[in-house]
Design a protein that fits this description.
Length: about 170
C-alpha cells in the first residue's frame, strides 16, 4: 500500500458479527457529510481517483480453530450469487486463535485486515443498483466452518486514504 498523509472515515458499523453460516451480508451507511457526498459523486463520474485509496477495514477479528478463507463481495443485487465483477478480495485468518488470546506479545483484540477497493467501487458506482446511501458487503466462507471453529468480526469500516505525493 502507498504512504498516506491523511485518512477519513467514510462508513462504518460496529457489527459484532459471528460467522456461523456460509453467507453473511452487512450494509455500511455512508456518513452524511459533504466530503463523503463529493467523493461518491467523483466515483460515479471518473474512472479512478488516483490521489486516494478507498480501503475496507475488517477490525477486531477474533476466533478459534482453523477458519476457512472469507471471500468478500461488494454491492451484490438482492438474491444475486457472488460473481467476479463484485469480488473485493479474500481474508485469510491464519493465527486467529493466537491473536484472540492475550499474551505477552499482544492483547486479545484479534486481527485487522484491509482490502483496497478503489477500482472496484469506481466500477460498481456506474451500475444501476449503485446506492449513495450505503455499501452492501457479502461475506462467503470458502468452505464450511469446521466444528468447534468460531469467527467473529467486531467492526467493518470504509476509509478514504489520501496518498502522499509521489513526485
Amino acid at each position: 500500500m502507498a504512504d498516506y498523509v491523511s485518512s477519513r472515515l467514510i462508513a462504518a458499523d460496529n457489527i459484532d458479527l459471528s460467522l456461523s453460516s456460509d453467507i453473511h451480508e452487512i450494509t455500511l451507511s455512508y456518513l452524511p457529510d459533504s466530503v463523503t457526498k463529493t467523493l461518491l459523486q467523483e466515483l460515479a463520474s471518473k474512472t479512478s481517483i488516483e490521489e486516494y485509496d478507498l480501503c475496507l477495514h475488517f477490525e477486531k477479528i477474533t476466533g478459534k480453530g482453523v477458519p476457512p478463507v472469507i471471500e468478500v463481495y461488494l454491492n451484490l443485487a438482492e438474491g444475486e450469487k457472488p460473481k467476479q465483477d463484485n469480488y473485493a478480495g479474500a481474508l485469510g485468518l491464519y493465527g486467529i486463535e493466537t491473536s484472540s488470546t492475550a499474551g505477552l506479545e499482544h492483547d486479545d483484540s484479534g486481527q485487522h485486515r484491509i482490502l483496497e477497493v478503489s477500482q472496484l467501487l469506481s466500477q460498481l458506482s456506474k451500475n444501476p443498483n449503485w446506492s449513495d446511501k450505503g455499501l452492501k458487503i457479502t461475506l462467503t466462507l470458502g468452505t464450511t466452518l469446521p466444528v468447534g471453529s468460531v469467527i467473529e468480526i467486531g467492526r467493518v469500516s470504509l476509509y478514504l486514504h489520501k496518498k502522499a505525493n509521489q513526485g
